[in-house]
Amino acid sequence: MAVIEVVQGDITLQHTDAIVTAANESLMGGGGVDGAIHRAAGRRLADAGAAIGPCEPGDAMATPAFDLEPPVRHVIHTVGPVWEGGDYGEAEVLAACYRRCLEVADELGAKSVAFPAIATGVYGFPAEEAAQIAVATLRSSPTGVEQIRLVAFDQQARDLLVAALAQDRRGVPRDW
Ligand code: APR
């Protein structure tokens, strides 16, 4: 059973075996957290992403971490859903992102993984529901990962993730 923790900070500074980026389907980099990770990992990340992409929404693929500081060895690229109001399977795709990232981490033998708040920026997914989906999915997915770090970029995101962790412990029913 993985330990799940919430931190506030920059995911490029996290000392975990793998870090997850909220990518677009090309895997060649973009803005937001993807831009930050590509800047930190260096130009080889975009080349490696292009070599294995495109990546479907809800799927996840890994590359080396290149110039990111050890112990980070892997970048797991996942593509979140673009929010279109909630009736187009967005919740299921977001849950799939978290599940697939853990599957890829297991294939890599990664024991610690840092996640950003996937899809809650440019893709517009409501942050509170996204936090609940992240926690519930990570809690219910069998994995060999021992440490899961949810990295909030600001206080509001942090508070939502902390609340989602507490709420999930109380067993709130969910439908995704
Ligand atoms: N560390 C941690 N979290 C970060 C960082 C960072 N350095 N920078 C941004 N974030 C947070 C944002 O505050 C947001 O909560 O990451 C979350 C995800 O936002 P986006 O990066 O916009 O990702 P997403 O909403 O999934 O949109 C993906 O944006 O950058 C493009 O190429 C990307 O097309 C893709 C789309």
Summarize the structure.
This protein has a single domain, classed as Leucine Aminopeptidase, subunit E, domain 1 (3-Layer(aba) Sandwich). The model has no long low-confidence stretch (mean pLDDT 96). The chain contains five helices and six strands, in the order ββααββαβαβα.
Provide an overview of this structure.
- The chain has five helices and six strands; from the N terminus they run ββααββαβαβα.
- By secondary structure, it is of the alpha/beta class.
- The protein has a single domain, classed as Leucine Aminopeptidase, subunit E, domain 1, CATH 3.40.220.10.
- Strands 1-6-5-2-4-3 form a six-stranded mixed sheet, sandwiched between helices.
- Strand 5, helix 4 and strand 6 form a beta-alpha-beta unit.
- Helix 4 crosses helix 5.
- The longest helix is centred in the middle third of the chain and has 19 residues.
- The protein is globular and about 45 Å long.
- Bound molecules: adenosine-5-diphosphoribose (APR).
Question: Could you give the topology of this structure?
Answer:
Layout: E1 3-8, E2 18-23, H1 32-41, H2 44-52, E3 60-64, E4 74-79, H3 90-108, E5 112-115, H4 127-140, E6 147-152, H5 155-169
Parallel strand pairs: 1-6, 2-4, 2-5, 5-6
Antiparallel strand pairs: 3-4
Helix pairs in contact: 3-4, 4-5
The chain binds adenosine-5-diphosphoribose.
